[in-house]
Amino acid sequence: MTQARQTVSSAGMLGLKAEAAAQTQVLAAFTYKGVASTLQRVWVEEGAQGLMKGTAPRCFYSACFSALGFFTFETTRVYLLMKHLEKKKITLEEKLDVKLT
User: Fold this and answer.
1) What distance in Å separates the CA atoms of residue 98 and residue 65, rounded to the nearest whole number?
2) Residue 83, CB-side half-sphere exposure with 13 Å CA sphere
3) What does the H/E/C string look like for the chain?
4) pLDDT given at position 11
């Protein structure tokens, strides 16, 4: 989504803008055509290390938010279970009181 377009017009541009447009045109020649070509290009230019860049931060990020999600789920589950059991206990006690009297 952020790669340069195939053609960049530098008509009417002067100085730094024209130079930037020319550099963009050079970069546009190396646009990615899909996932396979992207992986192949990264493999050729940077090797396996290039394909694994960002893996550790992403794993850390995912682990933190997974832990937060599990904590929230389990806390809510226990809270709702306790409320349910309290309600059952009250209704059971009411039934027992009625039968005993």
Assistant:
1) 50
2) 6
3) CCCCCCCCCCCCCCCHHHHHHHHHHHHHCCCCCCHHHHHHHHHHHHHHHHHCCCHHHHHHHHHHHHHHHHHHHHHHHHHHHHHHHHHHHHHHHHHHHHHHC
4) 57
Write down the residue that tokens 């806390």 correspond to.
75
Radius of gyration of the chain (CA): 31
Task: State which amino acid sits at residue 78.
Answer: V
Check residue 59 and give its pLDDT.
Answer: 96
Render pLDDT for 79-96 as a digit per residue (tens, 0 to 9).
999 999 988 887 877 777
pLDDT tens profile 34-91: 888 888 888 888 888 988 999 999 999 999 999 999 999 999 999 999 999 988 887 8
Torsion of CA 54, 57, 63, 64, to 10 degrees: -150
